[in-house]
Design a protein that fits this description.
The chain is α+β, with helices and mostly antiparallel strands and 495 residues long. Helices cover 48% and strands 12% of the residues. The chain is built from 18 helices and 10 strands. α9 packs antiparallel against α10 (285-312). It is globular, with a radius of gyration of 22 Å. The chain binds flavin-adenine dinucleotide.
Length: 495
């Protein structure tokens, strides 16, 4: 049985060029150290700068903010290659924490904020993290409790965050805080910089897997953050967070496909080498069928993830693919857990040993049904979007008019209750305005050129001022005291 990677169906020569670049970087700078870094629970901080210099840190970010161009598809291809060649999930996710911390700034931040925060991460190796989850809960984002009280030109932030990837080393943290009343309408995003008085990093957390990436608790005790560090409108962060989750889910699904691919390769190599009862393990039909099952499940998850990425990249697709992205994540996480488990099984006793790569991948895989929205929350999203879209299709069949193919907004993120009550119009407004940003980001719904990879001229930058104005005007026009669209808010703060 031979095995060569079957790329995503959307891949072109641009993706091949990105794969080659990511592979070279990972082979040179990660692979020789991957096992040691995982055991040490840390990779050297210089690697962030090396990744910038090698042109892999800015994949999926527009050139206008210091990136390499490209879209979510390019990110999936690049990440897969980094993992296959680098063989360290912890390093990949640690290096990639800006993939969840920067997109809201790229999409909704001012040019000054992009200059101050995005560019240094993509060009100079500065480190960013995203802090949503709190000790009191991660799934119910709309109930987050970290408070930010306005005091002149500052917010005074008090509260705590936990499980924050790259939290111990981040130069700044894109942080979800409560600036308004209860529910999704009272949430804002603040960029909180390391060294700000009142901001402390608690202990580095010990984990099952992802060892090379640091995971931290963060504490805010009367921490004064300039109002100028707020991303987008006050109390308007919830849909931004939900949009971020949608992309994160597909990135995580892509990581699962890559991890499984690596585990599968390891399993094949081992099964060919290892002999029992006078023949290689691949000589047993049960082994071949096991490998066939693994390959089939990887192919299925890759196909669904790839289709979802293609749909997300269509105009309006980000909204339309909400449910499908949740399905892709669950399919990929289940597949990854299964494949890694089978890979361990094929390795026998060696599969249980720390020196064996599949033992580590098996542990790494356990995060994926939890992080970025749990398996159960994904199912809530799917149930909600399925119900809504079927209802719409039925209404459309009965002559309800256009828009029947439009997606469901419900359940856009980890928070099933609040996301479910978010209005379609609001989601659509955010999706449209963010696509008018000067450039794309991970899942911007608009493919960029990847010109710095291919040498082609870049896509012209567009002004993002109009996008912010439209968003702010709509929120001002129809909002209650919490900034929630008056006749669409179903949260308890309704006034
Ligand atoms: C290694 C690691 C890295 C992480 N990195 C980050 C990061 O960088 N930034 C960040 O903000 N967060 C991060 N997280 C947090 C992660 O996103 C959360 O752990 C996740 O969203 C779940 O939240 P929770 O842990 O509070 O679980 P809870 O929300 O307390 O859920 C506990 C259990 O209850 C279930 N549950 C909850 N509500 C429902 C419901 N309505 N119906 C059915 N079941 C339900 C969940 O599915 C889960 O099984 C990270 C976590 C880990 C482990």
């Amino acid at each position: 049985m031979t095995h060569a990677i079957v790329p995503y169906l959307f891949e072109t020569e641009e993706h091949a060029a990105i794969r080659a670049r990511a592979r070279r970087f990972a082979q040179t700078h990660i692979a020789p150290h991957s096992a040691a870094w995982e055991e040490d629970e840390e990779f050297p901080i210089e690697l962030y700068r090396t990744a910038c210099a090698a042109g892999v840190a800015g994949l999926g970010y527009p050139e206008a903010v210091g990136g390499q161009g490209g879209d979510l598809g390019h990110i999936l291809a690049g990440s897969e290659e980094m993992l296959l060649a680098g063989r360290s999930v912890g390093t990949l996710v640690g290096l990639g924490s800006h993939g969840i911390a920067l997109p809201p700034i790229v999409r909704f931040g001012t040019p000054e904020q992009q200059r101050a925060f995005v560019r240094p991460c993509l060009e100079e190796g500065k480190i960013s993290a995203l802090a949503i989850t709190e000790p009191g809960g991660g799934s119910d984002v709309a109930s987050l409790a970290t408070k930010a009280v306005r005091d002149g030109d500052h917010y005074v932030v008090t509260g705590a965050k936990t499980f924050i990837t790259s939290g111990t080393r981040a130069h700044f943290v894109t942080t979800a805080v409560r600036t308004g009343g209860p529910g999704h309408g009272g949430v804002s995003l603040l960029v909180i910089e390391a060294g700000t008085p009142g901001f402390t990093v608690g202990k580095k957390l010990k984990k099952t897997g992802w060892w090379a990436s640091d995971t931290a608790e963060l504490h805010f005790d009367g921490c004064r953050v300039p109002v100028a560090n707020r991303i987008g409108p006050e109390n308007g962060a919830f849909p931004m967070i939900m949009m971020n989750f949608a992309n994160e889910r597909l990135m995580l699904a892509g990581q699962c496909v890559a991890i499984a691919e690596l585990a599968y390769r390891e399993a094949i190599a081992y099964a060919r080498e290892r002999h029992a009862f006078g023949k290689a393990l691949t000589g047993f039909q049960v082994t071949r069928h096991k490998l066939a099952d693994m390959a089939t499940r990887i192919a299925a998850a890759r196909a669904l993830t790839g289709e979802c990425v293609q749909r997300v990249l269509r105009p309006g697709g980000e909204l339309a693919a909400t449910g499908l992205a949740a399905m892709a994540k669950n399919t990929a996480t289940d597949m990854c857990s299964y494949v890694c488990d089978q890979a361990v099984q094929l390795h026998g006793g060696y599969g249980y040993m720390r020196e064996t790569l599949v033992e580590r991948l098996y542990r790494d895989a356990r995060l994926y049904p939890i992080g970025g929205g749990t398996r159960e929350i994904m199912n809530e999203v799917i149930a909600k979007t399925e119900g809504t879209s079927r209802e719409r299709r039925a209404r459309g069949a009965a002559g309800a008019g256009p828009g029947v193919q439009a997606s469901s907004p419900g359940g856009g993120g980890r928070n099933l209750r609040s996301a479910a009550t978010w209005s379609t119009d609001r989601w659509r407004t955010l999706a449209v305005t963010s696509r008018r940003r000067p450039a794309s980001h991970h899942g911007g719904g608009r493919s960029l050129t990847a010109s710095r990879v291919t040498g082609r001229p870049p896509t012209p930058a567009r002004s993002g001022v109009r996008a912010r104005e439209v968003l702010a005007a709509r929120m001002r026009a129809a909002s209650c005291s919490s900034g929630v669209v008056r006749d669409r808010c179903a949260s308890p703060c309704r006034d």
